[in-house]
Amino acid sequence: MDSFANRRHIIRFIIILVGLIFIIRLFFLQVIDSTYKLTASSNVLRYVTQFPARGLIYDRNGELLVYNEATYDLMVVPNQLQDFDTTEFCTILELKKEYVEEALKRARKFSRYNSSVFLKQVSSKTYANLQEKLYKYPGFYVQARTLRKYNSDIGAHLLGYVGEVNEKIIENDDYYRSGDYIGISGIEQSYEEYIRGKKGVNVYLVDVHNRIKGTYANGRLDKEAEVGSNIISTIDAELQAYGEKLMANKIGSIVVIEPSTGEILSIVSTPTYKPELLVGRKRTENYVRLMSDTLKPLFNRALMAQYPPGSTFKIINALIGMQERILYPYTKYECYGGYNSGRFHLGCHIHKSPLNLVESIQMSCNAYYCNVFRNILDNKKYPSIRESFDMWREYIMSFGFGEYLNSDFSNELKGLVPTKERYDRIYGKNRWKSLTLVSMAIGQGELGTTPLQMANMTAAIANRGYYYIPHIVKEIEGDSELDERFYQKQYTKIDSFYFEIAIEGMDLAVNGEPGSGSTARSAQIPDITVCGKTGTAENPHGKDHSIFIAFAPKEDPKIAIAVYIENGGFGSTWAAPTAKLMIEKYLNDSISVPWLEERILNAEINYNNAEKD
């Protein structure tokens, strides 16, 4: 009897335990775990993303540069398809029958019940024709998108372009899904987070065949897309267009900065391309064509090309020499056709001799700066040349060379200012001397600078010792100020007093009397005191590059500029007059020497026919 009672208690306990397990499991499934609920919802609800329009981009004066045009993605739900007239369908969409067959095969492979993109970026005109007959094609529907449009062909490199996200981007940022678009370069990339806006969603009820039956819960779960913020760029569209016009049929770049703010007024890189080529369904085809172009139109030379700074660098060595008290305004050196030390010879053009400091900048004497540079490195207040070289390098880097300027461009390069370790590897420790490195006295050797860095250096000189980090955006509408780094002065290691002496030499280089030996008289502008310095960068692959840096006016500068024209020869030949035209256009909105403008506009300078005189 007791045995029977015990078994009854055990059975009762087992039944209660099983019941508790079921109750706990049901509670977990229905209350805690939402997986089944979401699965059930996904069978009756369709979430349709609402893509926001990207923010517009304006120039500094309010001129519209980039806007949006409506476009449409044609979506397909394979399970809803019925037989349709493929000939008419292909005619409307300007497609080949093979594309339709392949696209439908991909869609069925993806899912028979869920929608996928059948055709991207259908134009408004094509959509208008399709909409009238869309009822004939069950299973197809249209999802609105936008495409970038441009008011002109200028600024391709600075504006950038938009492209489809890849798997890496999707993995790193959960905002994006397959098929989304993102800024790839320029402003579009740097300010993507502001320009893109925020996606919205519409929730619809669907039947077992995935057909929309209406809005779910009267739209209470819908979320409006938020349009992206408009961007006011720092660019002067008229100046940008003029710069690109001047640089047509040339290889090189122009960078123009407002010294008092660091705002980039113009940034030209040529050869360039039309921005509209990287928009729409032909973007991939055009991108491949541009990539295969031997002149590299996609390459932004203003940010990524590294050139020797040439004789423009003499100004920096002069400033370092004065700061280190091994050079004074009255210091004179002789030059008889160049610099000689033992069997070493570095040539120079013919000019009067000897020269003082101001005259050395005015006439761009190589021998003078070989002496200055060697005295900097052989300065006895440093225990060895390795320490004095480190000191020299710190001065150079305080002007923004050899490191990223931290601008709002994502693809700028930092150039090259060599280290003592580099020379230890080349020559051996304690086996190199000031004469070994003397080519850097005139901006040659291992130095590599970008045009953006050179324009920034010019702005620092114009400001008498400091610069603002160059940037391309002036304002983000609806947002607070830009990153505070753009409002902070970046000081060089040179006292402001010494800049006045160097600037006097730059003034005379442009505005010296005829026959005075001034190297940049081609940059003179009536009633405007332009301060500049020519340069010729040696090019091992062909004719030398023509360089010119300048700022104006001398007092209260409004513009600082760097011009590089590859294979253009001396700086005075092409770069200086190009800079003159840019400065005059910006400050006066007119050109005083039309024949010079015609000369620059009609010049064709490339690897084969560059001048050098």
Short description:
By secondary structure, this protein is of the alpha+beta class. It has 3 domains: 2-33; 46-233, Penicillin-binding protein 2a (Domain 2) (Alpha-Beta Complex); 237-274 and 300-602, Beta-lactamase (3-Layer(aba) Sandwich).
Strand content: 15-25%
User: How many helices in DSSP terms?
Assistant: 21
Main beta sheet, described? 6 strands, mixed
CATH fold category name of the largest domain: Beta-lactamase
Helix content: 25-40%
Nearest-integer average pLDDT = 89
Distance between the termini: 123 Å
Q: Tally the structural domains.
A: 3
Describe the structure using short key phrases.
35% helix; 21 helices; 613 residues; Beta-lactamase; Penicillin-binding protein 2a (Domain 2); elongated; five-stranded antiparallel β-sheet; alpha+beta
